[in-house]
TrEMBL record:
PROSITE patterns: GNK2
Main subcellular localisation: other
Annotated Gene Ontology cellular component terms: plasma membrane; plasmodesma
Protein's recorded name: Gnk2-homologous domain-containing protein
Organism name: Punica granatum (Pomegranate)
Length: 133
């Protein structure tokens, strides 16, 4: 093989390897490791509205705050925390947290006082009291 052709083939091969490695590192692992739901339900619609706001902010803000973000609502009091594997892209962190939120909906009653789910590459928790994970 001629030197220029061989050099071009090597460069193309290296670029393909680097490019595929770049995309495979950030794919989130969505395996559910654990989930906990508080057995008590909060009967008020205002709780659900405030909870949805907190969970939305956790999903949208966690990637921009070092993949580790706390949020809260004043009335009613709801405290939330979300975290992602720092190797994920911002979009993949948001995807992982969106799936985590869906898992909370699937595995917990409609308005539990508190719940948490831990996927392989992210986790989400909310309670009606302050906490520090």
């Amino acid at each position: 093989m001629d030197s220029p052709v061989r050099a071009a083939a090597i460069v193309i091969g290296l670029l393909c390897t680097i490019d595929s490695a770049r995309y495979s590192v950030g794919v989130p692992d969505l395996t559910v490791l654990s989930k906990i739901c508080n057995g008590q339900e909060f009967p008020y619609e205002s709780f659900r509205v405030a909870l949805d706001i907190v969970l939305d902010r956790l999903i949208s803000n966690t990637p921009d705050y070092g993949f580790n973000y706390y949020d809260w609502s004043d009335s009613p009091s709801i405290y939330g925390h979300a975290a992602c594997n720092g190797k994920l892209s911002k979009d993949d962190c948001q995807l992982c947290l969106t799936i985590a939120r869906e898992q909370l909906s699937v595995h917990c009653p409609e308005n539990p006082y508190g719940a948490q789910v831990h996927l392989q590459d992210c986790r989400m928790r909310y309670e009606f009291y302050e906490f520090d994970d």
